[in-house]
Amino acid sequence: MNELEPALAADLAKDVYDLVKRNVPIELALQTLQNTYTSVFDINIHDVTQARTGGPGFIKCKTAFGLMVYGTGAFYKSHAFVVLRGSRILGDWLTNGNFVLTSRSSAGHLVHDGFHQAFTSFQPQLDSFIAGFARQGIARVHCIGHSLGGALATLCSEYLKQHTNREVYVYSFGAPRVGYAPFADMLTKKLCAEHIFRVYHRTDIVPCILPWPYTHVPSFMSEMHDYFQPSPGKLPSAEWHDMDNYIKTVGSNSWTQLRSRRFEPFNDQAAE
183-223, pLDDT tens digit by residue? Predict the structure, then answer.
């Protein structure tokens, strides 16, 4: 299997937040990440992704948003990783709220304008990253993120599939919808549903947004190709959006085990 194990994808989605941890210099955060993932990839300051976020009419904030790194060692040598964090500062939340306007994705489909603007702010770095694929012998790319980071990882996966011939995988945890149905349908078909790992808690509020006509990826047969996870409560809330809860949910389970947790309450009692 060429996809990442659930625990590794979840750990990366959580640990990338260290880049913007208060009172921690980014150099120290990078060293901690390097020590943690020394068998997965090598990191330096040039691998840090800088993204610009903010709402329409607001001054944009440019901050460290993640990593673009090439794999290392016997197992990950042919792999590349794009790991992006979720919302942490005001500009990030303003970006999330900018859903009234839409933009065209790299393949020409309607997507959330705030997500698209944040993505295009680091697109030149992504182009430079892609330029190194041949030299590094990259065969597959993993796009990973939580919340807003999951939305941006989804846009990255479309761009990578549009501009490279590598295998592309996307792993999102508690991510919102990114684009309209044509975007979701196209990306599901291009990536192949088996390359899309959308993990979400039943009572996580963020995957419940954005409203129609926005559509989740994968867009069809979602009961077979997403990773619904039961969570306490009856109404969506912020509690089960926290990445720490996703870490606990994923644990040491395989993708097959996580998928088996789906329940379908389509019976007479549920209908009533």
Answer: 999 999 999 999 999 999 999 999 998 888 899 999 876 56
Q: Give the 3-state secondary structure of residue 159.
A: helix
Of 242, 105, 117, nearest to 181 by C-alpha is: 105
205 CB burial (10 A radius; 0-12, 13-18, 19+): middle
Task: Give, in order, the Cα–Cα distances in Å from 117 to each of 88, 125, 127, 240, 245.
Answer: 17, 14, 16, 27, 29
Report the chain's terminal Cα–Cα distance, integer Å.
42
CA–CA gap between residue 214 and residue 257 (Å, rounded): 29
Residues recorded for the chain: 272
What pTM did the predictor assign? 0.90
- Shortest CA distance to 53 belongs to which of 19, 87, 25? 87
Beta strands in the chain (DSSP E): 48-53, 61-70, 79-84, 102-104, 110-112, 140-146, 167-173, 179-180, 196-201, 214-215, 227-229
What's the rounded Cα separation, in Å, for the pair 189 and 121? 26
Q: Helices in 122-203 by DSSP H: which ranges? A: 123-131, 133-136, 148-163, 181-191
Residues 38 and 203: their CA atoms lie apart, in Å, by 35
Pairing of strands 196-201, 227-229: parallel
